[in-house]
């Protein structure tokens, strides 16, 4: 990110909230969504932060998503529920889903919530953070519109669907969170590289002729690749099975693209599984062992170029500490888009170029 001015988290939340309110979302929905979107910026996951606001607003304006959905949880068994997201923004269904899933885990040990008729839910870590603060180990899966080829294909078919796992550590604000897109890199970051004419590593994408490229623009016009060859391709396929087919959502290339397909609901699916940490030992014993592992890992001999070894979730925690102190920086391109929204909806903007 390359803006000289940095913004307070509260400025970004207020702006997002005010836009969503003007678009027609109620107070509660605007609050839930603005908090979750800006949490991504705060953790340095800017590809899934306020940059996405114009896309969500556009989807609502085009009536491809509902402003204020009506949720219906359906009981499948004592600890398994299904939720129809009623085509609201994915943040709402996912937020309700993880709360239910954690409550089920607290009562029954394990909870499972499957969600269909949802939309893009942003940064998966949001839901894992909630689960880990509530002493749960959690998996949060989603499928997504087609962006990645199955191994060996030259056409997008599966989503960049993140694999997301989290569990608590001693520090409530620094859980172990492995939250990774099944693409080599988030598409937002590829777009940024294209705009800034930044070279990308070979292996991230093919150009439109199917040749490996390190040119951001050619990559953006071509096809993104999964991480780790057939292994990442397998994970994005798996995500389509568990979060798409299993939940009753769209699947097999049918999830509509949030940015440019307004022909109907996206019907994204999510799957959440939460387990209490104290099922086989006390919570404190679980945490002690996690911390023991961290200590051992930190003391290992470092590979060339590494001063320290971080656990998944730790880089984002460090971003959070830095952003909390210095403020959150936004690129000029994002500010221009946000100010257009501000003008359209007559909302006061804190953003200056
Ligand atoms: N909703 C959707 O459809 C969708 C689709 C794709 C991506 N996303 C979101 O995009 C976000 C970004 O995904 P990404 O794959 O670009 O993330 P990333 O590559 O920045 O990080 C992936 C994981 O690696 C860990 N990590 C990074 N550097 C590390 C280091 N030095 N040591 C140890 N661990 C390290 C991170 O903590 C993270 O858990 C995620 O929040 C994801 O949920 C959402």
**For the record, what CATH class of the largest domain applies?**
Alpha Beta
List of distinct ligands in this structure: nicotinamide-adenine-dinucleotide
In CATH terms, what is the architecture of the largest domain?
A: 2-Layer Sandwich
Strands in their spatial order, largest beta sheet: 2-3-4-10-5-6-7
Tally of domains:
3
- Helix/sheet category: alpha+beta
CATH superfamily of the largest domain: Malate/L-lactate/L-sulpholactate dehydrogenase, NADPH binding domain
Anisotropy-based shape: globular
- Give the helix proportion (percent range): 40-55%
Total number of helices: 11
Distance between the termini: 13 Å
Amount of beta strand: 15-25%
Order of helices and strands: EHHHEEHEHEEEHEHEHEHHEH
Tell me the CATH topology of the largest domain: Ribosomal Protein S8, Chain: A, domain 1
Q: Using the CA coordinates, give the radius of gyration.
A: 20 Å
Major β-sheet profile: 7 strands, mixed
Mean pLDDT: 95
List the defining traits of the structure above.
alpha+beta; 353 residues; Hypothetical Oxidoreductase Yiak, Chain: A, domain 1; 11 strands; binds nicotinamide-adenine-dinucleotide; globular; 3 domains; 40% helix; Wheat Germ Agglutinin (Isolectin 2), domain 1; single chain; 7-stranded mixed beta sheet
Structure description:
With 353 residues, this protein is of the alpha+beta class. The chain folds into 3 domains: 1-61 and 324-353, Malate/L-lactate/L-sulpholactate dehydrogenase, four-helix barrel (Hypothetical Oxidoreductase Yiak, Chain: A, domain 1); 69-181 and 228-280, Ribosomal Protein S8, Chain: A, domain 1, CATH 3.30.1370.60; 184-225, Wheat Germ Agglutinin (Isolectin 2), domain 1 (2-Layer Sandwich). The chain has helices at residues 9-23, 27-42, 53-61, 90-108, 125-133, 187-196, 216-221, 230-245, 283-298, 314-326, 332-344, and strands spanning 6-7, 72-77, 80-84, 110-118, 136-142, 163-167, 176-180, 205-206, 223-224, 268-276, 328-329. A 7-stranded mixed beta sheet has the order 2-3-4-10-5-6-7, sandwiched between helices. It has a two-stranded antiparallel ribbon with strand order 1-11. It has a two-stranded antiparallel ribbon with strand order 8-9. A hairpin with an 8-residue loop joins strand 6 and strand 7 (176-180). Helix 1 (9-23) packs antiparallel against helix 2 (27-42), helix 1 runs parallel beside helix 3 and helix 4 runs parallel beside helix 5 (125-133). The two termini are 13 Å apart. The relative contact order is 0.17. The structure holds nicotinamide-adenine-dinucleotide. Nicotinamide-adenine-dinucleotide binds at residues 45, 47-48, 120-125, 142, 144, 159-162, 164, 177-181, 185-186, 310, 312-313, 315-316.
């Amino acid at each position: 990110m390359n803006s000289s001015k940095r913004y307070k988290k509260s400025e970004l939340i207020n702006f997002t909230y005010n836009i969503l309110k003007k678009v027609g979302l109620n107070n509660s929905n605007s609050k839930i969504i603005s908090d979750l979107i800006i949490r991504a910026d705060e953790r340095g996951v800017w590809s899934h932060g306020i940059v996405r606001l114009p896309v969500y607003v556009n989807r609502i304006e085009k009536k491809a998503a509902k402003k204020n959905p009506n949720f219906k949880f359906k009981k499948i068994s004592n600890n398994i529920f299904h939720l129809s997201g009623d085509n609201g923004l994915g943040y709402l269904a996912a937020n309700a889903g993880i709360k239910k899933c954690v409550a089920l885990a607290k009562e029954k040990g394990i909870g499972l919530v499957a969600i269909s008729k949802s939309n893009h839910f942003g940064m998966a870590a949001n839901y894992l953070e909630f689960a880990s603060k509530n002493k749960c180990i959690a998996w949060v899966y989603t499928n997504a519109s087609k962006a990645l080829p199955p191994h060996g294909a030259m056409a997008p078919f599966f989503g960049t669907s993140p694999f997301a796992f989290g569990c608590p550590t001693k520090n409530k604000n620094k859980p172990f969170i492995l939250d990774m897109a099944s693409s080599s890199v988030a598409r937002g970051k590829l777009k940024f590289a294209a705009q800034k004419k930044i070279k990308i590593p070979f292996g991230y994408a093919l150009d439109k002729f199917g040749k490996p490229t390190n040119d951001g623009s050619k990559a953006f016009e071509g096809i993104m690749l999964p991480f780790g060859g057939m292994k990442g391709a397998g994970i994005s396929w798996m995500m389509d099975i568990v979060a798409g087919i299993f939940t009753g959502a769209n699947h097999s290339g049918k999830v509509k693209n949030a940015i440019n397909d307004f022909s109907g609901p996206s019907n994204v699916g999510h799957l959440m599984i939460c387990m209490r940490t104290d099922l086989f030992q006390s919570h404190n014993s679980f945490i002690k062992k996690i911390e023991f592992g961290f200590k051992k890992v930190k003391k290992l001999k470092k590979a060339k170029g590494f001063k320290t070894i971080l656990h998944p979730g730790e880089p984002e925690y460090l971003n959070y500490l830095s952003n909390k102190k210095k403020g959150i920086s936004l690129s000029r391109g994002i500010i221009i888009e946000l100010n257009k929204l501000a003008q359209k909806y007559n909302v006061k903007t804190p953003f200056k170029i």
